[in-house]
Amino acid sequence: MNFFCRSILFIALFGLLAACDNPAGLNPLRPNDKILAFGDSLTAGTGADLNTSYTAQLQQLIGRNIINAGIPGEISADGASRLPGLLDTHKPNLVLIMHGGNDLLQKRDEQQLKENLRRMYEAANQRNIQVAFIAVPKPGLRIQDAPLYRELADESGAQLLEGALSELLKTNVYKSDAVHLNAAGYEVLARKIADFLKLKGAI
Questions:
Q1: pLDDT digits (tens, 9 = 90+) for 178-203
Q2: Rounded CA gap, 9 and 85, in Å?
Q3: Among the listed residues 156, 74, 81, 152, the one whose alpha carbon sits nearest the alpha carbon of residue 110
Q4: CA dihedral 17, 20, 24, 27 (to 10 degrees)
Q5: How many domains does the chain divide into?
Q6: What is the CATH number of the domain that holds 55?
Q7: What are the two backbone dihedrals, phi and then psi, of residue 94, each rounded to the nearest 5 degrees?
Q8: Beta-strand (E) ranges in the chain?
Q9: Which residue of 55, 59, 90, 178 is surrounded by the most CB atoms within 10 Å?
Q10: What residues have CB less than 8 Å from 17, skipping those under 6 apart?
Q11: Would the pTM count as exceeding 0.70?
Q12: In which domain, by residue range, is 24 found?
């Protein structure tokens, strides 16, 4: 095989490996990399002390710097407008997005919620920042993830943690009220997210 052919083969092989360098879903986070936790009251830690929010407990579990960017009561349209500035300020390596609960509680248009979540994904993607969504349940007799999160993940290719929040909100021992977790609930959520990040190759 002459030099030219070997060069072409090497370039093709390198391209194939580059396309497959992320088979699990997320690229590994280095020890000094930052995670931006973006959302509403569930991210802020309503129902527990700040040091027992899911972000505080996740930081202890995975040894990465986590920036808590949760604002209680925020709807997704406001979140989609707020996120780009945070991305530019903090320059995180991964964004965990758990947003949309207030839209669902207020029975706002779900297609618009989906588009607002897509805007969040695209804001991060345009900056080459990894994204993982955490599905939020839709209020009703059966507490289960709103289908739009799976739809969006399938359409965008974003990583999605399903069922974690819904399962916790079915169990009173993990709740501080009807829609928020307590310290024990946030601890379990943090562990589920840590397991998810390990499964996806981030840590």
A1: 999 999 999 999 999 999 999 999 99
A2: 43
A3: 152
A4: 70
A5: 1
A6: 3.40.50.1110
A7: -150, 140
A8: 34-39, 65-70, 94-98, 130-134, 137-138, 144-145, 159-161
A9: 55
A10: none
A11: yes
A12: 3-199
